Amino acid sequence: MKRMILALAFALAIPSSAFAHFFVVQPSMAVVEERSDAKITIDVRFAHPFEQALMDNEKPKQFGVLAGGKKTDLLGSLAVAKKGDARTYVAQYQLKKPGDYVFYCEPASYWEPAEDKHIIHYTKSVVQAYGLEEGWDEMVGFPIEIKPLTRPYGLWAGNVFTGQVLMDGKPVPNAEIEVSYDNTTGVKSPGEVFNIQVVKADENGVFTYAMPKAGWWGFAALEEASFKLPDPSGEDKPVEIGAVMWVNTVEMQ
Ligand SMILES: [Cu+2]
Fold first, then answer.
1. Cα 85 to middle of ligand 1, angstroms
2. What is the average pLDDT across 150-179?
3. 110 CA distance to ligand 1 centroid (A)?
4. Is the pLDDT score of 10 beyond 70?
5. In angstroms, what is the span from residue 46 Cα to ligand 1's centroid?
6. 53 C-alpha vs ligand 1 centroid, how far in Å?
7. Span from the CA of 17 to the centroid of ligand 1 (angstroms)
């Protein structure tokens, strides 16, 4: 599939990374220690994070937070923030109690004519508040989701992140995971091939990647859904469903 896309991209002279879409749920802070920082901002967007390019996206289907074993719907607090031609979204959230907060989003499906399919990336990001480290491995219950096996915050640049890909609650053997750095620091890559890193999971769906730089790192496990959705002409087309998780690393000083 991937090879076919690459061949197609070559034929059409489109850089292959043009296809490396990542949905992004990005809190303004990954670790909150001071009460004065209690109000955080969560940015929600569909992007090519390495290239810092944005894609327009309809209002998400679900947006919420899982904390203390409870899910809270925050869709009403999500406001449109237009950047160029792309609609991105932003929400404010007040962290009241100590604990881990899993912010999650189910985007609207995105029709990608270049790949002749729809894309739905179920995405999450964890914020740790006031020292009570509980809940970071709680599952949102998405159809496809990454279970973190590494605590996804308080990470140094250079640390590894290990996760397990689950689809309908079952491990996905040999899942392929694309990894992207949210390139806010303007890293120049020596070639297209560096922009997205690829790792494969083992027979239990477990993968590991070492993050070489401070910032946000996105992990995306992409599979084909068992359902189809109509394209703009009404014809049923395949749906790529992705489990996306973002983790933050900090430079050792
Ligand atoms: Cu795109």
1. 13
2. 98
3. 10
4. no
5. 8
6. 8
7. 9
Q: Report the separation in Å between the CA atom of 19 and the middle of ligand 1, taken as the mean of its atom positions.
A: 6
The Cα 103–Cα 48 span in angstroms is 20
Overall residue count recorded for the chain in this entry: 253
What are the residue ranges spanned by the domains of the chain?
2-250
- Specify which residues 180 forms β-bridges with: 218
User: Against a cut of 0.85, is the pTM above it?
Assistant: yes
At 15, is the pLDDT very low, low, confident or very high (cuts 50, 70, 90)? very low
Question: How far away, in angstroms, is 34 Cα from ligand 1 center?
Answer: 37
Q: Tell how far the Cα of 81 is from the centroid of ligand 1, in angstroms.
A: 18
- pLDDT value at position 35? 87
**CATH superfamily, domain at 2-250:** Immunoglobulins (2.60.40.10)
pLDDT beyond 60 at 179: yes
How many of the other CB atoms lie within 10 Å of CB of 15?
Answer: 13
User: CA nearest 12: which of 21, 4, 20?
Assistant: 4
Burial class (CB in 10 A: 0-12, 13-18, 19+), 150: middle
pLDDT tens track for 17-45:
446 899 999 999 999 999 888 899 999 99
